[in-house]
Here is the input.
Amino acid sequence: MYEGQQHWLHYRHIEQERNQFLGFFFTLLVAIVGFFVAVSSREPTWPELAMGLSIMAAVLGTISLLIFASVRKFGAALLAYDRDIARVRESLFELVEPARTHLASEPGTIATRMRPMMLHRVFDPQFSAEVIVGTSAALAAGVQVFVAVDSLVVDGFSPGQQAIACALAAVSVAGGSAMAYTWIKGRKPQDR
Here is the structure.
């Protein structure tokens, strides 16, 4: 019984950590948008504005990748705790006569009988957290690639600005590719 209680407490603690990381992520996102609005209100030239946008996207992308890695680790830990809690629960129900509890052989409800995969995954907090953070990282990479291409095509960008924009875009695409590989590789076969 103690083992199950400890697993449940650890499970809840990891869920809280994941929520704190997401709270930090959204705080950062709002701060970056606010900072960009403040900078863009000074009426800078397009190259200055584009470089500021690219640098802010690089910060957002980097933080998104780090938070994504942490959220993935939290998900792996939660999955292990899910299995252990189920194992402890099964062992406890073996000790109790089936007539003494309704939990051991709970009849299937509509929710358990009709569980479409997509509907279930959309409302899964782990999946939602990964999609939110991953999408933000992908958008940040897209902004950096747009600025890099624009710096090469449009006049007005200095060679230093072009080099910085292209370097940020290259690093962001590499990081985004690594994140996508990790996400796809880490999915369970039934989720693919």
